Every structure is written in C-alpha cells, then in structure tokens.
Amino acid sequence: MLPTAAIRFPQPGQLKVLFFDVNETLLDMSKLKKAVVTAFGDKSAFRQWFGLLLQYLLVDTVTERYHEFGVIANAALDMTAAKLETKPLKAVQKQKILALMTQLPAHPDVAQGLEMLREAGYRLVAFTNSTKFVLDQQLQYAGIMGYFEQGLSVDVLRRYKPQRSTYHEVARHLGVMPEQAALIAAHGWDIAGAQAAGLFTGFIARPGQELYPLAGPPTYHGKTLVEVARQMIG
Amino acid sequence: MLPTAAIRFPQPGQLKVLFFDVNETLLDMSKLKKAVVTAFGDKSAFRQWFGLLLQYLLVDTVTERYHEFGVIANAALDMTAAKLETKPLKAVQKQKILALMTQLPAHPDVAQGLEMLREAGYRLVAFTNSTKFVLDQQLQYAGIMGYFEQGLSVDVLRRYKPQRSTYHEVARHLGVMPEQAALIAAHGWDIAGAQAAGLFTGFIARPGQELYPLAGPPTYHGKTLVEVARQMIG
C-alpha cells in the first residue's frame, strides 16, 4: 500500500499548469514495441532498449554531457544487441524503428482526459525528453496538438528530466511557481523528479509501468488519464 | 569500430592507482542471476532488475536523494514485478536474493590479473556503489581481499558513480590526481563516468556487457582482467 497519509494536495485554485509527459503517457508505443521485439527476435527487447535509453540519458546528465534523445535511442539499440548477445541491427533497420517514434497513436483515453482538463480551466503543456522537432510531429500525428497551449522539450535546456532544475526552468518559462504546476506521467522516475522539484504529480499506471517505491506517493493516481482527470477536477 | 585514434594513454610511470568496480567486473553474478530468473520465471528478469537498479540510483543522484544500494536493489525487485506484470516477490524471497550479493565467486581470471597488476607496482583499490559493509563481505567471500590496499564505497559520499565528483573524491582520498588513476569496470556507464572525470579506463567486456557508444573509447579493452592487465603492463 502507498502511504496515503503523506499525499500533498493543492488548495482550490492553486494548480494552474499541467505538464504532460508524452511517450507512453499520452502515446501508445505498441507499434514501436512490436518492431523492436521483431528486429531482435526477443520479447524482452523493447523493455531492454527503452530501459537503456533512460539509463544513458541519466548517465549523460550526471557526467555533464548532452546528446539528443534520438541519438541516445540509436546508441541504446546497439547496447541492446550487446546485452542480448546478438548482432547489432543494420543502420537502415535502426532508422526504420526510430522513425516509428513519430507515428504513434494516442492512448484511447487521452483525448477525453485532455478535454476534461482543458474545460476545467487548466493550462495544458506537453513536456518531453524528445526534441521539439520530434514532439511536434508526435502531437500532430496523434491528433492531440490542439489541446496544448504549447509543447516544450528539454533540448533548449540540454538537461533531461528528472533533473530537478529542468522542472523548475519550465515552470518559470510558463510564469508559475513549481507548486502551481503538476506533472502527469506514466514513469516512476518522472514522478520522482517532479516531486523532488516541488510540483504536484499524477501517475497514469499504464501496463508495465511502476512508481519508484522510495519516492513519495503521487498526488493523483489512476489507470487512465480520464481517471486522473476526474480526481483533479474533484 | 571504436575510434582508436582518440584513445589517450598514460605516460610511463604516470598511472599510480587502479580503481576496480566490483559487481560483474570482479565477481561472477551467475548465482544471483539464476535466483532472480527463477523467482520471476522470466529469463529477462535479471537484466530487467539490474537495469532498474542502475537506473534508479541515477534517478536518486539527479533528484539529489540518496538511498543505500541494497535499499534500491530491494525496491527494484518490486519495480521488476510491475514491469513484467507479475506479482511482487514476498519479503523473504527478496531477502534471500539480496543475501546472494555477498556470496559471489570471483571470475576465474581475476586473481591472476590482480596479482600481475600488484607485482607491476600499481596500488589496487576496490571502489563500489555497494555499501562498505557489503563490499568487505564480498571481497572476503571471493577470497580477493588481500590484493587491495583498501576497499572504498560511495556510501560515505552519499553520491553514486558515475557522477564525476564521486571519482574526483576517491582520487583525492588516495592522494592522486584523476590523471594518475584508472578505473577498471565491466560497465559502459562506469567507464563513461570515469572518462568524464579525467581518469584512464579499462573495460572488461564480460558477456552481455557493453560500452556507451557516445562516450570515447576506453584506454584498455579486453575480455578478461588478465587481457587488460597485459595491456597495462605492456
């Protein structure tokens, strides 16, 4: 059980801006997952690859380096081959897989959830570790661009989520204090980072996603964005 | 191919201290791997678990938190269950698995490699993300404690490898400059961190281990510690 007693809720009217993580949180990556599993012939290959991608953007962060998300994603495909003790994929195979990042549908609950939150008066902002270029293509393809006041990428900061200062910078950019903002994400590491930065949080428990047990509980917690939206609107 | 042209070698006599990563680098984790795979009934479970462990100690680092390695290892077992969409392990199962961390044999090449390097006049230091308490038990069990001048843990710094300052602190503790030290490890992230901190590096390509393609090449590179030691002694 989560220690519910420790959950911190905003005062009425306190919460102004909602930041949305994009990959897995809003977008269904099944198509990409299938392509990675097929390319490596191993059912754990997608989790392995995406795990390495997240691990090495953190390595870059703590070693004070920066490479674009897609560049690390490409390198992580080679690292996945080494982990699985199989041959690396050919460049053209890797390109085909990475191109799928911009051709992902939204989860079925996303449009309704965004609509509810927009109508409730929140400012909605997409905020991703992908580049701005990829983000715009993603929101366009998924047909959800119109819900957002704007789309923001870490690429201008050259410092990934979940580094605390990254969340602080985007809150400042939007003209709000961290405690006037919430991050909605399907990733435990993103929730942990936003919490450490003083934001409220909403965790969408997509299948195979998990909270970090050593971080505090999220403010809101549901299986879909609609569930989380209902809690936020109250 | 690695860009060999970019490899930086020490001048004769420059290199004084060799830091050794412990888990996977010196110790064979097969026993632990088998236990995790059996407990979850999934052949990818060990890679998944160890990947999450490494990912979340990085999350702690960038969110300016600290939990002991064993505490994160325990949490990562729960996260692995969520990732695999299976039931969490019972507390007693987790304890049994984690206890194996201190009952791992050294890889067969390790004693010979350490002997060669000690005879060549290097100061040998074990340097791990595990606690000092666990480290001492590990070196004792594996019968390799006698090779080391000392064993150091990140726990006194409360800041994990591969954060740059972590390597700097241990070099200072040993009374050497970063460029008088080398890190020997089987992990791409550890090599990348030591490089970023200005140390020389030796990568042991244990099966399923990989370099980070976006970091520079290591100074030394072999399949066993004996191979790496031969290169260092020249």
Automatic annotation (TrEMBL), chains A, B:
Any idea which UniProt keywords this protein has?
Hydrolase
Q: What does the record give under GO molecular function?
A: hydrolase activity, acting on acid halide bonds, in C-halide compounds
Coiled-coil positions are none
SUPFAM superfamilies in the record, alphabetically?
A: HAD-like (SSF56784)
Q: Which Gene3D superfamilies match?
A: HAD superfamily/HAD-like, Putative phosphatase, domain 2
- Is Amino-acid biosynthesis among this UniProt entry's keywords? no
List the InterPro entries hit by this protein, alphabetically: 2-HAD, HAD-like_sf, HAD-SF_hydro_IA, HAD_sf, PGP-like_dom2, S-2-haloacid_dehalogenase
Q: Which family does it belong to?
A: Belongs to the HAD-like hydrolase superfamily. S-2-haloalkanoic acid dehalogenase family.
The record ties this protein, via PANTHER family, to:
HALOACID DEHALOGENASE, TYPE II (AFU_ORTHOLOGUE AFUA_2G07750)-RELATED, HYDROLASE, HALOACID DELAHOGENASE-RELATED
Protein name per Swiss-Prot or TrEMBL:
2-haloacid dehalogenase
